[in-house]
TrEMBL record:
Tetrapolymerization of the monopyrrole PBG into the hydroxymethylbilane pre-uroporphyrinogen in several discrete steps. Binds 1 dipyrromethane group covalently. The porphobilinogen subunits are added to the dipyrromethane group. It is an enzyme of class 2 (transferase). One of its GO terms (cellular component) is cytoplasm. This is Porphobilinogen deaminase. Residues 228-295 form the Porphobilinogen deaminase C-terminal domain.
Length: 302
């Protein structure tokens, strides 16, 4: 077999996620020659500006996708939550493995619980979704923009004397941070903070025309995860969502039922709207919940 070239962001977490995908593939196919091609994206370079101001979700994948289209790599590994609702022309999501924890984690600098956070506590996040929902939990919170990889954000929490920062639980787990956490933390429930679309899931992308690679990658696809996150992505697509709109969605199967929660914030109204439904048929529910939330915002705007 020829050497397989894998593209990914050049960050500790992205490299770890790539190794997770390669381990899954090797369990199915055995050892194969591979070359990891790390890349620095625009989103990695422009850390002093909020994502909403510099172009949104594609910032973390554009350079990697360009290499994929050009044929300099054979497949790419992304965090699904970083991907726009529409996959780039000529590319396809060949595999979405089983999802990790989709939740958000609130890490504290000094206190040991949410209840101990001081009045007007300063919370760091670059996500409008997290900002809106943190203020829903406590309207006195002062939210400050903080970007960078996990290590950088933890360092900036200290440097800027923030009371806490919000990070994705899955990323912390993949970096083994919970094995020896150096700060107190709490895991936020989906009732407290609805996750980003696809949060906790990885996406393996390749060229649509590369049928051999698609078949190779599809062996690690997890159908149940894919079904759920695709409804979340339908929710995102209906809202035409990007990083400049506070959006969250979470689909989960409990027994015979599917639970779908959607979150949408409106910056002009300075309000947020949530809706949770329980259904037995999942198909179409993401679009339906998104349309309901849009209707609610339209009524509030009158």
């Amino acid at each position: 077999m020829k050497t397989v070239r894998v593209g990914t962001r050049n960050s500790p977490l992205a490299m770890k996620q790539t190794m997770i995908i390669l381990d899954l593939l090797k369990k199915v196919h055995g050892e194969f020659p591979v070359e990891i091609v790390p890349m620095t994206t625009k989103g990695d370079q422009m850390l002093s500006v909020s994502l909403a101001k510099i172009g949104g979700k594609g910032l973390f994948i554009n350079e990697v996708e360009q290499a994929l289209v050009a044929g300099t790599i054979d497949f790419a590994v992304h965090s699904l939550k970083d991907m726009p609702a529409k996959v780039a022309d000529g590319l396809t999501l060949a595999a979405i493995p089983e999802r990790s924890d989709p939740s958000d984690c609130l890490i504290f600098r000094e206190v040991t619980s949410f209840e101990e956070l001081p009045k007007k506590a300063r919370i760091g996040t670059s996500s409008l979704r997290r900002e809106f929902q943190m203020k829903n939990l406590r309207e006195d919170f002062q939210v400050e923009s903080i970007r960078g990889n996990v290590g950088t954000r933890l360092k900036r929490m200290e440097e800027q004397q923030l009371d806490g920062i919000v990070l994705a639980t899955a990323g912390l787990k993949r970096l083994n941070w919970f094995d020896a956490p150096n700060y107190p933390y709490t895991i936020l429930t989906s009732e407290q903070c609805i996750p980003a679309v696809g949060q906790g899931a990885l996406a393996v992308e390749c060229r649509s025309e590369d049928l051999e690679m698609r078949a190779f990658l599809q062996q690690i696809n997890h159908p149940a995860t894919r079904e759920l996150v695709m409804e979340e992505r339908a929710f995102l697509a209906t809202l035409n969502g990007n990083c400049d709109i506070p959006i969250g969605a979470y689909a989960v199967k409990e027994g015979r039922d599917y639970h779908f929660s959607g979150f949408l914030g409106d910056k002009e109204l300075k309000q947020s709207f949530t809706e949770t439904v329980v259904v037995q048929e999942l198909a179409g529910i993401g679009k339906q919940v998104a349309e309901h939330l849009l209707n609610r915002i339209a009524k509030e705007s009158l």
